[in-house]
Give the backbone structure.
Amino acid sequence: MHVLLIIVTLFLSSLTWAGTAIGTVSQLEGKAQRVNSQGKHLIKLGEDIEEGDEIQTLSDSHVQIHFNDEAYIAIRPNSRLRIDSYRVTDVDQSNSLFTLFKGSLRAVTGWVGKTNAAHYRVNTPNATLGVRGTDYETVIILPEEASEQQAAGTYNTVYEGEIVLQAEGKTLNVTPAQAVFAGLGQAPRLLANLPVFLQERPKLDERLEAIKPQLQQRIQLKIQQIQAIKQHIRDRSEQLRQQLPKPMLPLHRFP
C-alpha cells in the first residue's frame, strides 16, 4: 500500500503544470482589463492568466483564453468574469470554478470538464451552472439592464454536450439547441424560443470553431494517456502486492 501511495504521488506530480499560469490570452479585440491582487492593467495578446484573475471587458472588446487543459473561454463585451479556481493536476483533483458577475461568455471545456465534470462550475448572481463535457453560452441580464423582452436573470444555451442549471433548489438539464432561463428568485425553465442575444455569434468565434476538431483530438489523446497511466498504476500495484512475503502463521503454544 505504501508503494502504491508513492506511485500515485509521482503520477499526480507529473500532471501538475509548471508555474502559476493556467492559460494564455489567445485572441483579443479592443481593450480589456485584468484585475488581481497585484492591481489592474490592460490585457495583452499572449499574456498569461492565473487563478484569481478577474477579466473585465468593455463595450467593444472580446477576450479568448486558452487554458492548459485545452479549454477555451470567450468573454463577450461588457462582462466581468473571475477565475476562482483552475487546478489541472489529475482526474480526481482537478477543478474549474468561475464567477460570471455580468455579461456573457462562451466556453468549450477541456479534459478537466470531460473527466471531472463534478468539479466544474460557473456561478452567476442567481444560479449555478455545471457541465458534462460541452460547448455552451451563458448570458446574465442584470436588473438595471432588463426590459420587457429581456427579463433579469441567467440565460444558457448549449451547442454541444449538456449543461445542468441550478437555481432556487431546482435543477434542469439542457441539451443542444435548447435554451434555459433562471429569473431572479425563480427556478430554471426551458424557453420556447432561443432569445436573439443567444443566437448572435461574434466573428471572433470563427477561429474557435475552426480549431475545435483539433482541440477534441488533443483532449481525447490526453484522456487516453491518463487512463493508460492509471491502468499501469493498478497493474503495478497488483504485481507488488503479490510479491510481498506471505505472513507467517502464529506459533502454537502448548500448555
Observations:
- The longest helix spans residues 205-243.
